[in-house]
């Protein structure tokens, strides 16, 4: 498959080129995370302390959480979450 973006440097504003389903500490800090199913999600942004999660309640499937996060919490997360990387 031809990829016209192969030589384009990734930036925070560019579309994601990689992703993974997560409910744990992230091995790579993603640009954002997105809900694959509707529900609740609790995340810890990159610069928040472990005891400072952000909870998003009643979020629709397909909605991005536009924080760079280092952890998706199992407690408080009912939705399936994927990363937006590269």
Describe the structure.
By secondary structure, the protein is mostly beta strands. Helix content is 0%, strand content 34%. The protein has no helices and seven strands. The strands form two sheets. Strands 1-7-2-5 form a four-stranded antiparallel beta sheet, with no helix packed on it. A three-stranded antiparallel beta sheet has the order 4-3-6, with no helix packed on it. It is globular, with a radius of gyration of 13 Å.
Main β-sheet, spatial strand arrangement? 1-7-2-5
Helical/strand content category: mainly beta
**What count of helical segments does DSSP give?**
0
Shape: globular
The major β-sheet equals: 4 strands, antiparallel
How many distinct folded domains?
1
Instruction: Give the topology string: H per helix, E per strand.
Output: EEEEEEE
- For the terminal residues, how far apart are their CA atoms? 19 Å
Low-pLDDT parts are none
How many strand units?
7
Oligomer: single chain
Helical residues, percent: under 10%
């Amino acid at each position: 498959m031809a990829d016209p973006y192969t030589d384009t440097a990734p930036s925070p504003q560019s579309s994601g080129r990689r992703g993974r389903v997560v409910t744990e500490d992230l091995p790579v800090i993603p640009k954002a995370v997105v809900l694959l199913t509707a529900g609740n999600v609790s995340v810890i942004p990159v610069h928040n302390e472990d005891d400072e999660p952000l909870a998003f309640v009643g979020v629709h499937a397909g909605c991005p959480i536009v924080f760079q996060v280092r952890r998706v919490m199992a407690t408080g997360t009912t939705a399936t979450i994927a990363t937006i990387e590269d």
